[in-house]
Amino acid sequence: YFIVVSGGPAFAGSTGSSLLTDLEEALVTLADKVRPSVVSLSPYVPPSPSIRRQGGRSGIPASAGSGVIIDGAKGIIVTNNHVIDNADEVEVTLYNNESYKAKVIGVDPTTDLALLKIDADDLRTMALVNSDDVEVGEWVLAVGNPLGLNSTVTAGIVSAKARSININKEKFAVESFIQTDAAINPGNSGGALVNLEGNLVGINTAIASRTGSYTGYGFAVPSNIVTKVVEDLLKYGSVQRGMLGVSI
């Protein structure tokens, strides 16, 4: 994805080739580091009464998504609320193909985030860092499970910050997305947007598309918002916000 057409003046000569080689090596190392921290989610929504009477498992598969392990010692995973919304059961599959049933700790529709817990420990944790330090033009990787393709890694740059696209229809929705041109498709939701140090800078959430598939623009909830939501869900079970009682 990051291959540059040869012959351009900015990349002519050995210096340009060396830069591309260094970048390639860095991305290969980074992909190997971060993939074990991203999981596949298979939520099951309650079936209709007629389906339930016919037997089978308690739910029917909903759209699969992704999640990120943010506390490997406690089995804590963050994802998008829309990935697990209305699900009565969520199956988590790790990078090594081990599967667990997840407990939903809490959800926050206003930021489209949710927190899960599985009974596992010693998992590969991905650290959250200050997303205010992310710069436009910075290289990032998107890691997730798009279109059923597990542990997919795409590369791109940060295209913009603090982007609002009016996709969240909650009354008090919070949108301040990191925009990236790293390819994101259905199934990437809840996955990781990571910097070149392998740290989490955002949770991939949405795309701008007229077709439903990637057309060049993806959006991630910044890690600073994720940190606030996670801390509140763990401590209070819901997100605490000050309300002025006035709308404009």
Give an account of the 3D structure:
- With 248 residues, this protein is of the alpha+beta class.
- The protein is 18% helix and 33% strand.
- It contains four helices and 13 strands.
- The chain has helices at 13-34, 49-53, 81-84, 223-235, and strands at 38-45, 60-61, 65-71, 76-79, 89-93, 99-108, 113-117, 139-144, 152-163, 177-180, 192-194, 200-208, 217-222.
- The strands form two sheets. Strands 1-3-4-7-6-5 form a six-stranded antiparallel barrel. A six-stranded antiparallel β-barrel has the order 8-9-10-13-12-11.
- The protein is globular and about 55 Å long.
Mean pLDDT over the full residue set? 87
User: Helix fraction?
Assistant: 10-25%
What would the principal axes of the Cα set say about the shape? Answer: globular
Spatially, the strands of the biggest sheet line up as: 1-3-4-7-6-5
Contiguous uncertain segments of 5+ residues: 1-14
What structural class do you assign from the helix and strand content? alpha+beta
Outline the fold blueprint:
Blueprint: H1 13-34, E1 38-45, H2 49-53, E2 60-61, E3 65-71, E4 76-79, H3 81-84, E5 89-93, E6 99-108, E7 113-117, E8 139-144, E9 152-163, E10 177-180, E11 192-194, E12 200-208, E13 217-222, H4 223-235
Antiparallel strand pairs: 1-2, 1-3, 1-5, 3-4, 4-7, 5-6, 6-7, 8-9, 8-11, 9-10, 10-13, 11-12, 12-13
Summarize the structure.
With 248 residues, the protein is α+β, with helices and mostly antiparallel strands. The chain has helices spanning 13-34, 49-53, 81-84, 223-235, and strands at residues 38-45, 60-61, 65-71, 76-79, 89-93, 99-108, 113-117, 139-144, 152-163, 177-180, 192-194, 200-208, 217-222. It has four helices and 13 strands.
